[in-house]
Amino acid sequence: MFAVFKTGGKQYRVAADDKLQIGKIKGEPGEIVEFGEVLLLGGDSVHSGAPTVEGASIAAQVIEQGRGPKIIAFKKRRRKNSRRKRGHRQEFTLIRITEILTEGRKANQNPPPPPQRAKKPVPKEADETGESTEATETAAKKKPRQSAKTRKKPPMAKKKPQPRAKRSKK
Fold this sequence. Notes:
By secondary structure, this protein is mainly beta. It has a domain at 2-101. Helix content is 5%, strand content 38%. The protein is built from one helix and ten strands; from the N terminus they run E-E-E-E-E-E-E-E-E-E-H. The strands form three sheets. Strands 2-1-5-6 form a four-stranded antiparallel beta sheet, with no helix packed on it. The termini are far apart.
C-alpha cells in the first residue's frame, strides 16, 4: 500500500518503512508524528480525496533533525564597490514511515524496529578434495592495484624530425 500526503507545501509518495527528508517539523528523534493531509491512498484499489481522504493519516518516526549543505548567495555590482555575501543552510527532518492508517485509526506509539539489511553470504572455503570454489577462483583472477609510479606506461610513437626550412638569399 502507498499514499500521497502533503506537508510543508510539498507532496510525497510513500510506503511503509520508507525514509524521507522533509522540511523541518516539531519533534524529537524517536518521537512519532502524524500527517493528516492524505491526498491519495493506493494499493489494490485507489482512493483519492476531495481534497483529502477522510479518516486516513500517515504515522512516521522522527530519526534526525538536521541542516542541509551551505548555499552561498553572492551578489556583486561591478565597478560600484558593492558586493554582498550571504550563506544559508536549510533545516530538515529525516523521518521513517511506520504505518499508513485508514478508517480513523490512531498511530502505535511504540514503532516496530527498523528493517534489517540482509547479510551477504560468506564464500565457501576450498573443498576437502582441494578444489577451490567459485569465490576463490574469481579472487585469484583479480590483479592487485598498481600505483601510478609502478604502472607501466604504453610506448609512445616517436616523432620524426621535420626538415628545417631553407632560407633563400636575396
